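Margin note from the TA: students keep mixing up input and output lines. Inputs are the sequences; the output is the structure of the whole complex. Example:
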Amino acid sequence: MYSPLRLDPAALMGEIAAFQRKLSAGMGNLKHQREPEYANTPRELVYREDKLSLWHMKGQGKPTAKTPTLIVYALVNTVWMTDLQDDRSLVRNLLEQGEDIYLLDWGYPDGTDRWLTLDDYINGYLDRCVDAVRKHAGVDAINTLGICQGGTFSLCYAATHPEKVKNLITMVTPVDFQTPDNMLSNWSRAIDVDQFVDTMGNIPAELLNWVYLTLKPVRLNQQKYVSLVDILDNPKELQNFLRMERWIFDSPDQAGEAFREFIKEFYQQNKLIKGDVVIGGKPVDLGMITQPVLNIFAEQDHLVPPDASRALGRHVGTTDYTQLAFKGGHIGIYVSGRAQREVPPAIHQWLSTRN
Amino acid sequence: MADQASDLLRDYQALAQHSWDAWTRYLQQQSAPSYAAHAASTPHYGAGDDVLARSMAALKGYGEWLHGAIGSGLGQAPADWQQSLQSLFSNMGGQPFAHAFGSLDSDAARSFTQMWQSWMQANPSMAGGFKFDVEHMAAFGYTRERQLQQQALLAAMQDYLAQSNKYQALIQRANNEGFERLQAKLAELADAKRQVESLKGLYDLWVDAAEEAYAQIALSEEFRQAYGEMVNAQSRVRQLQQEQLEAMCAELGMPTRSEVMALGKRMHELRREVRANAATGGTDEIAALRAEVAALKRQLTGKPEQAKAAAKKAPARSSKREQEKEAVVRRAKPAAAVVARKSVVRGATRTRK
């Protein structure tokens, strides 16, 4: 019988010895690495309320776009994924294309934010940020670029405040929360979220990080660090790795009440595509979104499966709907080399014909 | 019979004492290290220590796997590759998945584990398979309520153990199926006359196989139920522990979690009410009140003409005396003033909820 393993004992010993050498030589580099910085694109504070900050991002030249674009990130993790490092920055790329970019940083909720609801976030914070951008830019309506859960928020917002949204871009945004390949959805469905939130209060970021890691437990908890050994002797690659680790584990707690609502209404009851979501007394009907919509999703997304995003096309009311599939994952869509080449130009091109 | 009763009482007393000790130890353990771990996860990222700890734990598992591969005889007898592979993975006993789930440096998960271990240490009989017939034992005496709390907690802990075991059984199944998938992948390679030439190559192939097997189970209805029941059981334990802690805090005169929560909830309700009032014409009403106050001030300082003009701009009110009253109330309690004024306008004396 033909053996699929050609593992010569001497070669195996050599492989192990080489791994150990690389590891011991490289661990010193890891231990003495300085703290990795994000891209820190120049920015100006436009509005601040409670924990959130609204930033106006500054490019090298003046924006050529007439309508500003507000990036609305998820409550999970931080918005700095969009401005991770100099050569991997969605924000910087969009600025270079001539877009006028504002960025909403939700901040880190604490115990005083335990009772913030989706109404507080969407009809409160987000609406006031949109108003602040409109005022700052001197326009009646703006573009919103919603990412992941922030995309869901943007959809809810555009459906209930259509007069303030000119164009809507969604990236890796869940719309149908119960596609068969949605692991997070499967896990959340039998949880007594009322008891969970009543017990936990705010949901600790560490707990959520643990949940995300267990989506691909061996790959994310072991294989990733085994592969790290290969770049320990490359300072630039090591800094990039550490920067990404910083972002992954720089994560805010979730305000308990908003978490409860989001899990129950969206994940457990899948109300968004049924038109049953009501936020602050306002019904959210995706059919009411008549603005142009650009929906970008990642084909290898393990957090928001492509079908969860594609569903938007079937439910949104607009006749100007564009869908863009990106070959990559949930994170790669912002930071991979391919993303830098493909995503910002596509957004700019789409916006430039609609502003 | 009498002996049984006194044994039971002793058990209860011991249990209560152990519970208190457990809390004390738990709170002591919770102090600096846990807080430091949390602080390290905030935006101000520390050194590479966190990554170092994670990567070392992962590499330890990988290193053991490598050495296990050598010990299993892989490569020494190519014809027996299946047996060598079997030997490698059976010796590991599910270690890679155990690592992936067991050694996560999660503060939240760790705090529950610590809490759990404290309780187990406090109740050694439980750790050794404590068989308390919690459902059928009547509570009695002046500590009856506390006994009921303890019984509920014990029941919740037993339930958590049961649910956790069901979950772990699924993880173990994923591990076994991962190995079967690995064998299938290798068989496909053999059919195609292709070979894996390094341990890293074999490891990567195993990771693919393990993740595929895990994903299939993790997406199943069975996993959904097991996961939900485990989370719910853990929440229940936490809930009952919090209730006991609340009672202890209350006895010590300390503010409790539920009191702080209630304050926060009221604060947010009040904020929403203020915003809603402002959004639904409250702004105009406040402006009108401000105009009235300004008019009254001017009147008091001897500027009757301006005061008259300002008063004209304000909406019709019931009487000057009432306006003065409202102005005073408003200065003291803005939200209450709006309520009081609305009542006056309606000609009613009741307060609006």
